[in-house]
Amino acid sequence: MSLDTIRARIAEAERDAGRPEGSVRLVAVSKKQPNERVAVVLEEGHRCFGENRVQEAAGKWPEFRERFDGIDLHLVGPLQTNKARQVFGLFQAIHSVDRPKLAKTLARLAQEEGHCPELFIQVNTGEEEQKAGILPGDADAFIEECRALDLPVQGLMCIPPVEEEASLHFALLAKIAERNGLSGLSMGMSGDFEKAISFGATHVRVGSAIFGERTG
Ligand SMILES: *Cc1c(COP(=O)(O)O)cnc(C)c1O
């Protein structure tokens, strides 16, 4: 699907939800996509991209940054603490803050570097064992802990279980965000971003619907 089509669908979902135009940010998830496809989307003027692996991002984005201004890169996948420093020079946002040890490492690096990417706390709304994220019951305390560390927490992120109705998870994430006074909601992917927008998503992470099937 073309970038224009996705943009039009986002705008329509904003209107349907009675939300201001432009209130949803499109994070184009370019992981495992050939560079030619990513370059096409950059040439169309899009600047906000998502990657799920630090290594992969480090291999392709410095070159794109030489060719295109204003790239806004978001890490949407798990982050190991030993790769955290690398993230500071590469990403403008992290959507996967999911444990106290990582929060402490980010706080220390933010002190040393004098800046910090925007942060989203990942919540494991489906309480799935194999999935990263703080459990819903621990979310309030963890948000508090991140704030006590002076981390710039922008909002929450979730990846609903594949076999479940995503709406329940979007609603739960929105509720946790609201009671903690957080405005950012990173939720919704290729198959359900319009639904996520109706539940208040501020950031949708759309990959295959823009770029096509992933390779590699
Ligand atoms: C890959 C990925 C996406 C994009 O998924 P699509 O179904 O291709 O839109 C979104 N969020 C995360 C965390 C991902 O890893």
UniProtKB/TrEMBL annotation:
Q: Which cofactor does it need?
A: pyridoxal 5'-phosphate
Alphabetical list of InterPro entries matching this protein: Ala_racemase_N, PLP-binding_barrel, PyrdxlP_homeostasis
- The superkingdom listed in its UniProt entry is Bacteria
Which stretches make up the Alanine racemase N-terminal domain? 2-214
The molecular function GO annotations come to: pyridoxal phosphate binding
**Signal peptide: which range, if any?**
none
Keywords for the protein's UniProt record, in alphabetical order: Pyridoxal phosphate
* Family matches, as CDD domains: PLPDE_III_YBL036c_like (cd00635)
Residues with PTM N6-(pyridoxal phosphate)lysine: K31
Q: What does this protein do?
A: Pyridoxal 5'-phosphate (PLP)-binding protein, which is involved in PLP homeostasis.
Record-linked PANTHER family: PROLINE SYNTHETASE CO-TRANSCRIBED BACTERIAL HOMOLOG PROTEIN, PYRIDOXAL PHOSPHATE HOMEOSTASIS PROTEIN
* Family membership: Belongs to the pyridoxal phosphate-binding protein YggS/PROSC family.
Q: What is this protein called?
A: Pyridoxal phosphate homeostasis protein
Q: What is the lineage of its organism?
A: Bacteria, Pseudomonadati, Pseudomonadota, Alphaproteobacteria, Rhodobacterales
